[in-house]
Sequence to fold (368 residues):
Amino acid sequence: MGNWAELPEDILVLIAKRITLFEDFLFFSGVCRSWRSVAVNDNFKESDQIPWLMLSEKDKPDERQFVSMRKGGVIRTINLPEARGKRCLETLGWLVTTSEDSDINLLHPFTRVQINVSHISTSEYYHPRRNKHLRFINKAILSSRPEEGKDYVLMVIYAGGDTGGGFLAFWRSRDKSWIAVNIVWFYDINFYNGLCYGVRGTVSTEILAFDVWGPNPTVALVVGYGPSHVYFEGFKKPHIVESAGVVLIVHRIFGQVSPSTFSEDDPYIFETCRFTVFEFDSSEKGKGVEKTSLGNSALFLGDNASVSVDTSRFPGIKANCIYYTDSFKRGGNYMGIYNMEDGSLSPCYEGDPSSLICPPMWVNPSLH
Fold:
């Protein structure tokens, strides 16, 4: 057998350009020096990726570990001092970091590129005393990747409680200040086809859409309603995600756990029990149709911008399942895999304790 390290460079480039998964590209670069020399950005075609699980801070607070759901273990450890002691959210492969002073930055975890964002104190509903804590922002989404070189929007849910509901505000890359939306109790947001969709309410959910680039960016259009008849044992938290060309409303159902499981002085302990999924038609303003199956899709929900992946393209990812993490205060079953077919819950990764500052969350890996 020939020496793989002596393959001609042009052959290695052809091989590299056929790799579609970022984690496979990493393994390719680790074969030897000659292979690593062609494992550069220009030879990797960015495409949809499988989210990695970013673990909480451990003994080395400047390091972060990432877990592959395909490989079943830690796939990469990186030095990321910019995220030390900060609350992190994820969107389009970028981390949105917040400090105790509510300073906000966009941080690319794999290139360590950092973008300063205007302080949210410029938003109408910011109160320095009440909102000065790490969990001030509950969700953050980008309209597009900053590295694409065009104007983009960062939309956030902020000033909410432990369950996630709060105000809505957005910052456009060409602006110097935040713009507040005078509507409250949003629980999740996402961009789809150029519009920002938001879900508000828990018992009776309402789906609103915003055109943040239009002449009236803070004016919401009601495009649908969630079901009001869903039975739930404790409470529910809605998520919104595009999957296979349709918008889904996913309710995460929490049930109360015995206080003795955790601390006797905290009676409000909840854990994930199940999920319900509804598809709504934006042209009808209807209440949507319940879906009992996701088909070949798998959803990734948590402190990330909710995403769907086609499992037929990614062997090792379970179809018709919901991969979830949870930042709810002292939640018991805070991350795992929910099977839509039989309603079972299974762990997605064991051995990582939850963190109230920055719990484990999904991150879309990328080179750029």
